[in-house]
TrEMBL record, chains A, B:
Enzymatic reactions: Release of a C-terminal amino acid with broad specificity, except for -Pro
Name of the protein: Metal-dependent carboxypeptidase
SUPFAM superfamilies associated with the record: Metalloproteases ('zincins'), catalytic domain (SSF55486)
Classification lineage: Bacteria, Bacillati, Bacillota, Bacilli, Lactobacillales
Cofactor: how and how many bound: Binds 1 zinc ion per subunit.
Record-level Gene Ontology MF annotations: metal ion binding; metallocarboxypeptidase activity
Protein family (similarity comment): Belongs to the peptidase M32 family.
GO BP of this protein: proteolysis
UniProtKB keywords: Carboxypeptidase, Hydrolase, Metal-binding, Metalloprotease, Protease, Zinc
EC number(s) given by UniProt: 3.4.17.19
Keyword Acyltransferase on entry: no
Binding residue positions for Zn(2+): 262, 266, 292
Purpose: Broad specificity carboxypetidase that releases amino acids sequentially from the C-terminus, including neutral, aromatic, polar and basic residues.
Keyword Metal-binding on entry: yes
Length: 499, 499
């Protein structure tokens, strides 16, 4: 067994995965409505082939062989091998029978969640949630390496190296900082006008505007495309075929404008990964948090920049053919930056968004490390919303039933979103030491920013672990202060507060 | 080995084929331009998997077993087995080494053909053409069952049961009949006006019109879609996912209008095949000629009907928003039916089109049955055009270099197009004995026509051989007279000739 054979085998699996990704993309974007049953059958067959290549006898042989003979691998081969081994072991430690039972429970959990949302009653989901938690608790010891607590094991699934100890400290600081900013805004701020944001902007106008913006930001349309879906996503077939989707709302242009800027950030990451990692598991973002840092860098940092909008607004006005002629730039920009406490995570503004995540983090930690009674969950959820966001859900639907993650057995995933915010701000801080980011965003050429991200983040794909990536790119470990500084600066400006 | 196992195995192969079809569709319709190399690599890997399932050890075992034990198969299983065995044997009789050499030669032939088109010189293609012919001559004895001549073997590849003996008689009659109609038109006809046909009709207007028309004609958009490509095609993933493509020309609406009507005819065939054949090789049209009969039934028979256009023209006028207000129905309809001799097959009108095919048929027959000198080909080609169509190519590009078929090693394929014309007219003749087709086309409900095609043709998929299908549907074997009658009626009407 040679490295060459191993890499050729991995390439086969990656090719099959690419075919499967296209099946998914097509299903989400344009498959005829009546072909759902056939597609489900096809995807089930094809993912079976991918599963066999990923976890079957031949892969087992490679894993055994190169564990015993690490010297037979080059540094490159070793990198691919270790990444592959992670998911191989994660999977292989679970008994096949239990895996199938879990898959079955997942299906039930999803339909129970949908049902509970209809009845607006957490009780209808409780049993399935309990089952998801039981399975996860059963798997945690199998996944555990040297993590300190059960919930640490879950965090590690999505953000290798992340711990409860780190997050407790970081989130505490972040929560307090955000609440302090919110208090100051409530006390001294002048709320921006927002009514004009809901003027009609046609899909064609929005598309014209946003395609130019993401091209400016470095997303290469000749190596990608933009389609319509209900739930926006970025999907990578390979680094020359990185697709974005969005939902258009003609009564609220911000949905697609910020949505596409966000997805293009994911797309930039994927397009810019060094081609030498192609057809290996290293040819993707290194973690959910780091991926999100790139989409949020686009959405929050660039999309939050006054200089950026000052540059883009005239084109927006031109494309919208007079609709915003009576709105001067300052009114427009301030309108985009309104913030207020809200109940639904995916509708939250960027200042309050991390609070939604912190609430979920604290609750997940209670579930896995403190074994709380599930009957208490809605009460705990609502109390935390009241405490952190000053607004209390009146029903389960606007509270604990809003997210699909738990019904999908994804515990430990939520923190990635908040990590993305913090990483993005930390990259921004560091980038400002190398170049004047606002000046670049006010210019005709964003390439210094694109280049910085490519050089320090994108090119490495998953060959650097998240903590190593952050450390090498910014010279320090994760620090929530940069996000707080950024938010304070942006929101105080929008609310006309001197500081 | 049971029938159940065999059918399950065939289903796997069909699923893989479906995935491969989607890869092709995506490449043709919307893949990012710079992803071509990656896609080619992916398709090569995936078609390798399909090849292994189709011709590998396991299929060989099934073929051997059920050849020895036909009694182990139900009638249904036997149908699937025999269809599968056809392509299995066709492939397996060719030595793998020779197959690969042929694949390599194919690549060269294509690039030589492209080059010769650039230099406009048949000599640059001659060597590759000679190589394609040699390979084909080498394979013919391996494919031969009981066919009378080498060219019969090639005809059989695309239209099982078709022979030189039949075609010689049919094409002679057809050629004479068409030339007679053309002579009468030249003598007595009043040519229709055509200038208004090139008025601008936007893509959006054309799309609105044509999507309504094909829905009227029975194509189910909830089980299909319509996309843009350079070369239009119909592609089937499964009977609930049958996709059409077209090219739009805003200066010539006929390109897309008749193009989509044509492709929708293919689509109707595929959508209406009995679901019991799903995931077997019987779930497709039974031959190229029969498939073409359905697209041409739509394009030539329905698209040539005065009653049909009388019904649709007001909607066309409405959709084109006044562009054709000054053109009364009779002028419009007659304009669509102009005919004249031309050099390029794919631009020919429906009266002269079969002559283009007959020329190719006669030349292919000379190549394989008479071993003519390839140096004489351009001269022979040009002489035949002068004789049959009254117009002589001045260069190879407008003559012998125009089609891609020979560079793709596809000899014996051209006749299918002409068969499609004749089958379509023969179905029309028979359909008229069961219902008044013109009356139906002048009504709001085309379902009697849709139903007739479904009942007599579509539902059977490939479970009936072409000659059996024609015989059962029309009560007689192929008869070119119906096409001549139809053409005479349609063109004499358009050219205001009494008969």
């Amino acid at each position: 067994m040679t490295e060459k054979e191993f890499l050729a085998y991995i390439k086969e699996r990656e090719l099959l995965k690419e075919a499967n990704s296209l099946l998914y993309w097509d299903m989400a974007t344009g498959m005829p409505e009546k072909a759902a049953e056939q597609r489900s059958e096809l995807m089930s067959y094809m993912s079976g082939l991918e599963y066999d290549l990923s976890y079957g006898d031949k892969m087992t042989d490679f894993m055994t062989h190169f564990t015993q003979h690490p010297e037979a691998l080059s540094d490159f081969g070793q990198g691919v091998f270790l990444k592959e081994k992670e998911s191989f072991e994660r999977n292989n430690r679970i008994d096949k029978e239990r895996y199938l039972a879990f898959q079955k429970a997942l299906g039930l959990a999803h339909s129970d969640w949908v049902k509970a949302r209809k009845t607006n009653n957490f009780q209808d989901f409780k049993e399935s949630l309990s089952s998801m938690i039981s399975f996860t608790k059963e798997f945690i010891p199998l996944w555990q390496k040297d993590e300190a607590t059960p919930y640490d094991v879950l965090l590690n699934l999505y953000e290798p190296g992340m711990t409860v100890e780190i997050l407790d400290g970081v989130f505490e600081k972040l929560r307090k900082g955000i609440i302090e900013i919110r208090n100051t805004i409530a006390e001294k701020g002048t709320p921006p006008e927002t009514d004009f944001l809901y003027r009609k902007v046609t899909k064609a106008q929005q598309q014209k505007f946003i395609e130019k913006v993401i091209a400016d930001l470095g997303y290469d349309m000749s190596r990608g495309r933009l389609d319509d879906t209900i739930h926006p996503f970025e999907l990578t077939l390979n680094h020359n075929d990185v697709r974005l989707t969005t939902r258009w709302d003609e009564e609220d242009f911000q949905t697609a404008v910020f949505g596409v800027i966000h997805e293009a950030g994911h797309g930039l990451y994927e397009q810019n990964i060094d081609a030498k990692y192609s057809y290996t598991p290293l040819a993707t973002g290194t973690s959910m948090g780091c991926h999100e840092s790139q989409s949020l860098f686009n959405e929050i940092i660039i999309g939050g920049s006054r200089a950026f909008w000052q540059k883009q607004y005239p084109y927006f006005q031109e494309v919208t053919e007079g609709t915003f002629d009576d709105i001067d730039f300052d009114r427009f920009y301030r309108g985009l930056k309104v913030t207020q406490g809200s109940l639904i995570r995916i509708e939250a503004d960027s200042l309050t968004y991390p609070l939604h995540i912190i609430i979920r983090y604290e609750i997940e930690k209670m579930i896995f490390n403190d074994n709380i009674d599930l009957d208490d969950l809605p009460q705990i959820w609502n109390d935390k919303y009241e405490e952190y966001l000053g607004i209390r859900p009146e029903t389960d639907l606007e509270g604990i039933l809003q997210d699909s993650h738990w019904s999908g057995g994804s515990f430990g995933y939520f923190p990635s979103y908040a990590l993305g915010f913090m990483y993005a701000a930390q990259f921004y801080h560091r980038m400002n030491q190398a170049l004047d980011v606002e000046a670049v965003l006010g210019s005709d050429d964003y390439s210094p920013i694109i280049q910085w991200n490519k050089e320090h983040i994108h090119q490495y794909g998953a060959s650097r672990k998240p903590n190593q990536l952050i450390l090498e790119a910014t010279g320090e470990t994760m620090n929530p202060q940069y996000l707080l500084d950024f938010m304070k600066h942006m929101y105080f400006d929008a609310y006309q507060i001197e500081y």
